[in-house]
Write a structure and sequence with these properties.
alpha/beta, nine-stranded mixed beta sheet, eight-stranded parallel beta barrel, 11 helices, binds alpha-L-arabinofuranose
């Protein structure tokens, strides 16, 4: 089968906001305890942080790491998590039915993020708490005033403010599973008042309001409209969350799920623009896709996990090659919508539905999905160009026309390189792909990496950490062969 991709320098989508390669660490399962923090580990630093994990994360240059949740944030008492560790309470954590020892808290995490060369994207609790506590935590983190919470930070050993710039107004407040779940209007009013107090405390911050927890929520659309009508002048972004899965085992259909992400983004952008018009506002609300990934493998195992443990092995999905292809397509969708999506967080980063896994006290290993994320984070910075794809399509599930080839193209003004991220969704056939570059200063292929395996269900593990790993492959500036079910990163100069 043949296909063609044309990339024209004149057809620019947007300058990419690097923050679309952000990620997420929640106090959930072994993300923190046993993941980033393992004081008994042979690589632990002076604060108990695993340096093997830190090193890998530093290499990704992740712009933002969302914290401390997720569902966890809706019961979060930030004051429990700062200052003298010996005085911190152990709490029943009602989002994941675990015990939170508060050995790692806000004080430590902001230092971990600094060591990871990243920045914290902090969420406030609008589930069991409200605007006052949201303002207090902004003061603790960011204020230089001679006042109670800024002085509390100083007394805890931090003279300089943490300088946290991006804040989430709660998490998935539309979901009945959320601690302190709210109707759209209840949430919108609380978020609006929290936003005012938070920005009065630190006018330099930016705020993300909760949108829908996924495209299929019964309140989707109406939720966004209500939140935007109430909060428009006080917020900067609205969030989107969506996880994708293949519980029925229909790989062809699963590989097309990035088309749902396209639709989700376009619909929410349309709602933002509708409310902008309604309000006759000059301001655009941008999109923060601050939870996305594949998540379904661990669902059954999680039902059997005993409650009230510290760091139980929750949400430990082991990802297949098929999942990596989906993550490659989802990343392409984010890049191709970089005119509207300014922040996106791969959820999550370590051990919990994560690209990076650890054995507590033992080795670290990388999942299949690590690779498309790594290549996009590394080479997807610059200007997104429209990749015009001419290929056959197939029908699967409810979708009539899923293109066999999925692609995004990024030109870096800094390096002069054009990088193509391509997925061949065809399960059995190779594709002979011709490439046409228009107005681009590129004449040769610098690097071509391919991620594939004969078995779509192949996975990595601590024993076989490189069972599915990228390989070097051939390509020329005008053609490349794409093996069946394969992911490609091609750099041209
Ligand atoms: O990332 C796991 C969970 O998924 C988060 O806590 C929640 O926000 C979402 O439902």
């Amino acid at each position: 089968m043949k296909a063609k991709i044309t990339v024209n320098m004149a057809n620019q989508i947007s300058s990419i906001d690097d923050r679309i390669y952000s990620s997420f660490i929640e106090h959930l399962g072994r993300a923190v305890y046993g993941g980033i923090y393992d004081p008994g580990h042979e690589t632990a630093d002076d604060m108990g942080f695993r340096q093997d994990v830190l090193h890998t994360i530093r290499e990704l240059a992740i712009p933002l790491i969302r914290y401390p949740g997720g569902n966890f944030v809706s019961g979060y008492r930030w004051e429990d998590t700062v200052g003298d560790k010996s005085k911190r309470p152990r709490r029943m954590e009602l989002a994941w039915f675990s015990v939170e020892p508060n050995e790692v808290g806000l004080d430590e995490f902001q230092e971990w993020a600094r060591r990871a060369n990243s920045h914290v994207m902090m969420a406030v609790n609008l589930g069991t708490r409200g605007p006052a506590e949201a303002g207090n935590v902004v003061e603790y983190c960011n204020s230089t005033t001679d006042t109670y919470y800024a002085n509390m930070r100083r007394a805890n050993g931090f003279e300089a403010p943490f300088g946290i710039h991006t804040w989430c107004l709660g998490n998935e407040m539309d979901g009945p599973w959320q601690i302190g779940h709210k109707t759209a209007l209840e949430y919108a009013r609380t978020a609006c008042e929290a936003a005012k107090i938070m920005k009065w405390t630190d006018p330099s911050i930016e705020l993300v309001a909760c949108g829908s927890s996924n495209l299929h929520m019964p309140t989707f659309g109406q939720w966004e409209e209500t939140v935007l009508r109430e909060c428009y002048d006080h917020i900067d972004y609205i969030s989107l969350h969506n996880y994708y899965g293949n519980p029925s085992g229909d790989t062809a259909e699963f590989l097309g799920c990035s088309l749902d992400m396209d639709r989700f983004i376009e619909t929410v952008a349309g709602i933002c623009d509708k409310i902008k018009k309604e309000k006759n506002s000059e301001k655009d609300i941008q999109l923060s896709f601050d939870e996305w990934n594949v998540w379904f493998h661990s669902n059954e195992a999680d039902q059997k996990i005993e409650k009230w443990q510290v760091a139980p092995p929750l949400l430990e999905d082991v990802y297949t090659l098929e999942d990596a292809l989906v993550v490659g397509c989802l990343l392409n969708t984010l890049i191709n919508h970089s005119d509207r999506v300014k922040i996106a967080c791969l959820a999550q980063l370590v051990n919990v539905i994560a690209p990076i896994m650890t054995v507590t006290g033992g080795p670290m290993w990388l999942q299949t999905i690590f690779y498309p994320y790594m290549y996009a984070a590394r080479y997807g910075r610059g200007t997104a160009l429209q990749a015009e794809v001419d290929c056959e399509t197939y029908a699967a599930g409810e979708k009539k026309a899923i293109p066999y080839v999925d692609c995004s193209a990024v030109f870096s003004e800094e390096t002069g390189q054009l990088t193509l991220f391509i997925v061949n969704r065809h399960l059995t056939d190779s594709l002979e792909l011709s490439l046409e570059m228009k107005g681009l200063p590129v004449s040769r292929v610098l690097e071509h990496k391919v991620l594939t395996h004969a078995d779509l269900k192949a996975v990595n593990s601590p024993e076989h950490p490189e069972h599915v790993a990228p390989q070097d492959a051939e390509a020329s500036v005008d053609s490349v062969t794409l093996q069946p079910h394969s992911y490609h990163m091609i750099r041209l100069v």
